């Protein structure tokens, strides 16, 4: 590992992720040739990564505190359904477009406050609190829509998935911007430092004068707002909203967070690590799809990559 340190960044987790990316790229270059590096394949990756990325950021930020947010996808669907109902009822009316965005934000804030309050003030464990809100929200989503699809959105929504800037998809640029802002928040703000301290030792953080209740609520509100961002991208990509969209992403968001170097017990993790983990997962999925591999086998291989990553991470130099 001493030799590799000279060529890769100092963070050991980042080095391992970069090595995995290089290994995957070389493997698929031999097995798939130019098809893996085609424009169409990169477009496919760039269209899928932002949605999963937003959800993974929402999951990862709660895991940094030693918590978890199992309701992130159900919450995102609730936001999308609230926005979709207003947009479809009042098409081509700019004032209702703004109202729809605000409605989505309000739903996200309510969900975040509910999760945070259950954990901070009532003392419910994060996994049980968010499991309960996930079930509640998912049930309400289906009840209020009868499981129907709401479709037909204005061009401004569709532009997020169809538009590009300097040849780069707008959705990907939006995700990278959000990831950058989250990095700034975690690394250069009081809230970010408090969040890491809570993950390391919540009781000591409370005794040091940090209002851990407020930090917890802020973290879960921020997680829900990232879900709102994912909701916008899902609405744009599918030109519709439905209660069950993205359900298969839940375990993948946890996988991406852990693979990205976030300690499930809290206290350690970086946004860049999570972004690199998402790239690894999307490269694997895309390459295996091109090879005609079953999606179930793809999921199994993702788990294998996680096990390999953990083994390499904990290997003594």
UniProtKB/TrEMBL annotation:
UniProt keyword annotation of Cell membrane present: yes
CDD domains: TM_PBP1_transp_AraH_like
Subcellular location: Cell inner membrane
Stretches that traverse the bilayer: 16-37, 49-66, 72-89, 96-121, 127-153, 165-186, 217-236, 248-281, 293-312
GO MF entries: transmembrane transporter activity
Keyword Ribonucleoprotein annotated: no
A GO CC term attached to the entry: plasma membrane
Protein name: Permease component of ribose/xylose/arabinose/galactoside ABC-type transporters
Keyword field: Cell inner membrane, Cell membrane, Membrane, Transmembrane, Transmembrane helix, Transport
InterPro entries, alphabetized: ABC_transp_permease (IPR001851)
Membrane topology label: Multi-pass membrane protein
Lineage of source species: Bacteria, Pseudomonadati, Pseudomonadota, Gammaproteobacteria, Enterobacterales
Coiled coil: none
PANTHER family xref list: ABC TRANSPORTER PERMEASE PROTEIN YPHD-RELATED, ABC TRANSPORTER PERMEASE PROTEIN YPHD-RELATED-RELATED
Chief site of localization: membrane
Family of the protein in this entry: Belongs to the binding-protein-dependent transport system permease family. AraH/RbsC subfamily.
């Amino acid at each position: 590992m001493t030799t590799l340190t000279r060529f890769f960044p100092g963070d050991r987790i980042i080095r391992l992720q970069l090595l995995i990316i290089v290994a995957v790229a070389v493997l698929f270059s031999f097995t798939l040739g130019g098809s893996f590096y085609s424009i169409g394949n990169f477009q496919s990756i760039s269209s899928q990564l932002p949605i999963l990325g937003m959800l993974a950021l929402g999951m990862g930020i709660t895991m940094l505190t030693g918590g978890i947010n199992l309701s992130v996808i159900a919450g995102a669907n609730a936001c999308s359904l609230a926005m979709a109902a207003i947009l479809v009822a009042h098409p081509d009316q700019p004032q209702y477009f703004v109202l729809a965005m605000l409605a989505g934000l309000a739903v996200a804030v309510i969900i975040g406050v509910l999760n945070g309050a259950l954990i901070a003030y009532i003392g419910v464990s994060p996994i049980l609190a968010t499991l309960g809100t996930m079930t509640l929200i998912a049930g309400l989503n289906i009840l209020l829509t009868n499981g129907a699809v709401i479709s037909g959105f204005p061009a401004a929504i569709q532009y997020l998935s169809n538009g590009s800037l300097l040849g780069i998809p707008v959705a990907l640029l939006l995700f990278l911007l959000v990831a950058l802002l989250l990095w700034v928040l975690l690394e250069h703000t009081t809230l970010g430092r408090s969040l890491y301290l809570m993950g390391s030792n919540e009781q000591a953080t409370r005794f040091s004068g940090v209002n851990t209740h407020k930090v917890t609520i802020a973290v879960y509100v921020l997680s829900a707002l990232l879900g709102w961002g994912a909701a916008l991208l899902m609405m744009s990509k599918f030109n519709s909203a439905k209660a069950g969209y993205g359900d298969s992403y839940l375990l993948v968001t946890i996988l991406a967070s852990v693979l990205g170097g976030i300690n499930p017990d809290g206290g350690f993790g970086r946004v860049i690590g999570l972004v690199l983990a998402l790239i690894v997962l999307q490269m694997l999925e895309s390459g295996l799809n091109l090879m005609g591999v079953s999606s179930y086998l793809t999921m199994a291989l993702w788990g294998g990559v996680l096990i390999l990553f953990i083994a390499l991470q904990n290997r003594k130099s």
